[in-house]
Amino acid sequence: MAAVSLRDVSVSYGQRRAVDGITLQVRPGERVALVGPSGAGKSTLLGLCNGIVVPSSGEVQVLGSDPARASGRALKRLRRRIGTVHQQLHLIGPLRVVHNVNAGQLGRWGPWRALRSLIRPLQVDQARDALARMGIAGHLHSRTDRLSGGEQQRVALARVLVQDPELVLADEPVSSLDPARAEEVMRLLCGLLEESPRRRTLVVSLHDFDLAVRHCDRVVGLRHGRVVLDLPADEVDERARERLYELDPDR
């Protein structure tokens, strides 16, 4: 069974098609990079995978379920199995790092346990271990907004590590970083996939074509909401890159 399967999927916003008839499969354990110009449909495709975006037509299957047709309870269960790394990180700055890491537990905890953990953190050893794997164990009780940008990136990754998802979706996780830090975050992100007995699946959108080739198994190029490139990373050449990013004379 594919981790992600899209069959002739389109997403329309008024007259504009953000995704236009995409058929795509991602196998369990694959690291797939989505690349392409701004507005190509990368974020929309990731939104389809976690049920935030509903397709206008076509069929979406994620870990054996259709997010668009799942009941509220079933969708919540599915999202427990999906970890998301957002471009803006979605951390709560005034909270201690341990609370932001423990947000990865919220899919398993009920509301009372989550509230109790805000007063006195639960599963502290697990949070500390996740931070240690990210190289920042000493910041367990630091205020999150007092950390550097790179340290906050590591907190967001530790949160996913605690969640222990089967599928990781990352939407432009390095777009605001300098090249050295972007390389480091991609190394940590891909290393996170192997921190579990089962190899996690990664679908990540990137603007940096070279980063995609270096760190992923497969490169999927999107343009105007369509797949125009789908190759193993070691088969991607300069001509493929040029075709993906060439300007359209009629647009």
Automatic annotation (TrEMBL):
Ranges where the ABC transporter domain occurs: 4-249
What Gene Ontology terms describe what this protein does at the molecular function level? Answer: ATP binding
Q: Is Nucleotide-binding a UniProt keyword of this protein? A: yes
Alphabetized InterPro entries for the sequence? AAA+_ATPase (IPR003593), ABC_transporter-like_ATP-bd (IPR003439), ABC_transporter-like_CS (IPR017871), ABC_transpr_LolD-like (IPR015854), P-loop_NTPase (IPR027417)
Q: Does the keyword Nucleotide-binding apply?
A: yes
Q: Which UniProt keywords apply?
A: ATP-binding, Nucleotide-binding
Q: What is this protein called?
A: ATP-binding cassette domain-containing protein
